[in-house]
Amino acid sequence: MSQQQPLVIDVHGHYTTAPKALEAWRNRQIAGITDASAKPSPSELKISDDELRETIETNQLKLMKERGSDITIFSPRASFMAHHIGDFEVSSTWAAICNELCYRVSKLFPHHFIGAAMLPQSPGVDPRTCIPELERCVKEYGFVGINLNPDPSGGHWTSPPLSDRHWYPIYEKMVEYDIPAMIHVSTSCNACFHTTGAHYLNADTTAFMQCLTSDLFKDFPTLKFLIPHGGGAVPYHWGRFRGLAQEMKKPVLEEHLLKNIFFDTCVYHQPGINLLTEVIPVENILFASEMIGAVRGIDPRTGHYYDDTKRYVQATANLNDAQRYQVFEGNARRVFSRLDTTLKAQGR
How far apart are CA 341 and CA 165, in angstroms? Predict the structure, then answer.
């Protein structure tokens, strides 16, 4: 496997371009929470393979080819997870539908997409209820990871911290299957927190701090978390977190957290990637773009899309070719071991 021409693996993709029929069905499901006569059955959602192909070929796959990426780890649209809506039955049905669509995309484009699961989380509900869907996605669909929402309440933070035993049933399954979790919140229904500009980045930073203040990874030495969006405020305030860990008599961060926590490159300007790659060890950085996601426009200063993050990784002076291979391919294959197995089965 050449380090000069690595596979470019994007570990953070969402199905933001799903056919409109999906949103229409979801709106009916939400209406059915208060009006049983409006509640649709899953079988009423009709989306053909041709419709799926069109949404992918004219969007994600088109941009992947233009920008030079090969594989995307693909999960349901994050803001659509909306775990705060309805009860567990609502979330369970919705998660199953969204995960199946991502699975169908992965079957239609097996060399370009592989799934990661949305969990049927619901505020105040035992996380054990998520395990059947997690197992189905790994065993039947061949998914290689999950998205774990640390705040199913939608911006009100009513759940225990990630270090609490509340979450341990999920972690036990993650360790059993050797799958990582991307720590990813969904829509904020709290007016104080803009969903993508505040809530997402707050959650990234909060998740890291919850791990820092705990000894979670002593209980789960092989547990793996991917903190998206470049880690929120974490790299920018690395000295603060080092100092807090020191005051709390925790080990240095490299020993305390960085065997288990990884960061992606969903940072949408060159100085941000320069900082990330200067502060965070290269073995903890995985390439990602979250393309057609929160920031879809063109940067007038560069003439390129903000979320064309490959350009930033290529341009930074902080990485040599061997390190770029790690960011683009090697780290993803190590963190997502089931992805590595699938790629090897494909001869890649």
Answer: 31
Per-residue pLDDT tens digits for 261-299: 999 999 999 999 999 999 999 999 999 999 999 999 999
Which residues are CB-contacts of 149 (< 8 A; sequence separation ≥ 6)? Answer: 81, 83, 119, 121, 184, 185, 186
pLDDT of residue 1: 41
List strands edge to edge, sheet with 9-15.
9-15, 71-76, 113-115
Please give the domain boundaries of the chain with CATH numbers for all domains: 9-345 (3.20.20.140)
Tell me the C-alpha distance between 289 and 265, whole Å. 7
| Model pTM score | 0.96
Structure tokens at 59: 């969007």
Which residue is it, tokens 């030079």? 68
Pairing of the two strands 113-115 and 71-76: parallel
Catalytic residues: 290
- Quick: pLDDT tens for 138-154: 999 999 999 999 999 99
Backbone φ and ψ for 183, nearest 5 degrees, come out as -80, 105
CA–CA separation, 233 and 64 (whole Å) = 28
What SS3 state is found at 56?
Answer: helix
What value does the mean pLDDT of the chain take? 97
In 3D, which of 111, 7, 12, 142 has the Cα closest to residue 69?
7
